Amino acid sequence: MEETENTVQRPLILVTNDDGIFAKGIRELVKAIRPYGDIVVVAPDKPQSGKSHAVTLDMPLWYMVSKFDDADRAYKCTGSPADCIKIALFRILDRRPDLVISGINHGSNASINIVYSGTMGAAMEGAIHGIPSIGFSLLSFSSDADFESAATVSARIVEKVMQRLDNLPFMCLNVNIPNLPVDELKGVKVARQGRGEWIEDFVRHFHPSNKRPYYWLTGEYHDLEPESPDTDSRYLDEGYVTVQPVTVDCTDYGAMRKMKEEGWWD
Amino acid sequence: MEETENTVQRPLILVTNDDGIFAKGIRELVKAIRPYGDIVVVAPDKPQSGKSHAVTLDMPLWYMVSKFDDADRAYKCTGSPADCIKIALFRILDRRPDLVISGINHGSNASINIVYSGTMGAAMEGAIHGIPSIGFSLLSFSSDADFESAATVSARIVEKVMQRLDNLPFMCLNVNIPNLPVDELKGVKVARQGRGEWIEDFVRHFHPSNKRPYYWLTGEYHDLEPESPDTDSRYLDEGYVTVQPVTVDCTDYGAMRKMKEEGWWD
User: Fold this and answer.
1) Within 10 A of B48 (CB to CB), how many other CB atoms are there?
2) Helices marked H in chain A — which ranges?
3) Which among A24, B34, B113, B125 could disulfide-bond with B85, CB atoms 3.0 to 4.6 Å apart, if both were Cys?
4) Which residues between 177 and 196 in chain B have a beta carbon less than 8 angstroms from any beta carbon of chain A?
5) Nearest Cα to A265, choosing from B47, B245, B113?
6) Quick one: pLDDT band at residue B1, thresholds 50, 70, 90?
7) Of A6-15, A226-235, B124-133, B252-261, where does mean pLDDT reach its minimum?
8) In terms of Cα–Cα distance, which of B107, B51, B40 is closest to B83?
9) Which residue has the higher pLDDT, A34 or B9?
10) If 0-12 CB within 10 Å is exposed, 13-18 middle and 19+ buried, where does residue A70 land?
């Protein structure tokens, strides 16, 4: 049977985030990428920052229809960002999405932040199932940040990826966007993940009744290679949008080679 | 001042897990590695399987002393496995540990399981802070699994790592142990992470009162490269203990090279 115009489907884009379905970042993202396909949103019903690639094994999940301007369909789900992708792929959607998009995150996912990031956990979940996936993050933690610039950049990147869907050199991208107006952005750099760590300061408070101490996880980012010219953190500081191609293979191949040479456990 | 015998400290080993401080796996582990240093346990007060590298940003954390045979000190903490490492390093311990150990996990962390694993999230957190770290997992999900073999193997590996602490070719290891008696294990293989995915089956149940559907995340592991001879999954099937050196750098360097060659976003 010859393909008729009726049977040609628009690309399907699955969207999630980790700040929750009511966050400004995901609303601005969907508005900006609307032209590139049918949009289905499956996003957490509450903020899930710092949830990394967590999945919910000890509790059931619920999801329900949610109102969402600019999306074709939207659902809020009780689970983590990675749960949202799983339940979308295996329960909600009736066809395989062409692209998974997560974000726009309120805050940086450059450097070591990627390992804690629910935004990137969701994007990597898409990639595990062989679907090209992109996480977008704006370098501002404000819930009312100005997403105009980040949404414009995100839309341009989505357009470019959609044009080459059949021949992408990557499966997953971590895109970070400086908190600057579009005309002050220096350009886009493909960059590796800079090495860094959070030096934590557990702030102690006391329960008002039983006086037991409790602790808030707060900390300060510490760049472990501030002199390196080619890290994502460095480029972001200089005003570039960074694009990090991401793998879910955690193997340290350099260490593996050395261990084999040294005959560890032979 | 000359160092006297009094001032020589035994190595400090920080231990956590994701099945919770009361799980059999962590108890058997601590018993087995007791000879190699002072042991401080900081572990979740309840099961935290599937919590990946999650950190708790939206709630405070509590910890309190817990009874633990064979450990020098032990604390149970309300957070995730990665939280436990952070609060241990930055609040509880008065010196830097020489080694972080996580496990023994009840269940495999080979192949794609590493990305969902709270056990490995904790080990990777140690590595982020420059402390050699090992996650141990036994290929049995039973809460009452026989850990004799896994504990013996774990102790041997800890001993070997402790002997070479100053010159390790890796910062983090993911060790998986088949559920076999020691004399049936074939040996130890340094192995890369095999490619795989979970094909999920969201089992639907209904709330007894309001009849709303809810879903349990269950699934089946699908090996994406069953013919490859050198993956962790393959070696485990053959009866080998696998040792995967792990990095927290998620950059896909192969994709990065291709993107630069193709001039993406130039």
Assistant:
1) 28
2) 24-33, 81-87, 113-116, 118-128, 148-163, 232-237, 253-262
3) B125
4) 187-190, 192-193, 195
5) B245
6) very low
7) A6-15
8) B51
9) A34
10) middle
Question: Helices B148-163 and B24-33 meet at what angle, rounded to 10?
Answer: 40
Q: What is the pLDDT of residue A266?
A: 73
Distances from the Cα of B148 to the Cαs of A131, A237, B12, B38, B62, in angstroms?
A: 41, 52, 24, 22, 32
> Within an 8 Å CB–CB cutoff, is residue B35 touching chain A?
no
Contacts of B36 (CB under 8 A, 6+ apart): B11, B13, B155, B158, B159, B162
At residue A1 the predicted structure's pLDDT band, cuts being 50, 70 and 90, is: very low
ipTM, 2 dp = 0.95
Q: Min CA distance, B105 vs chain A (Å)?
A: 15
Report angle CA A115, A116, A119 to the nearest 5 degrees: 95
Asked if residue B142 has pLDDT above 80, the reply is yes
Q: How close is the nearest chain B Cα to the Cα of A180, in Å?
A: 19
Contact between residue B115 and residue A248 where contact means Cβ atoms under 8 Å apart? yes
Q: Is the pTM of this model over 0.80?
A: yes
Q: Compute and round to an integer the Cα radius of gyration of chain A.
A: 20
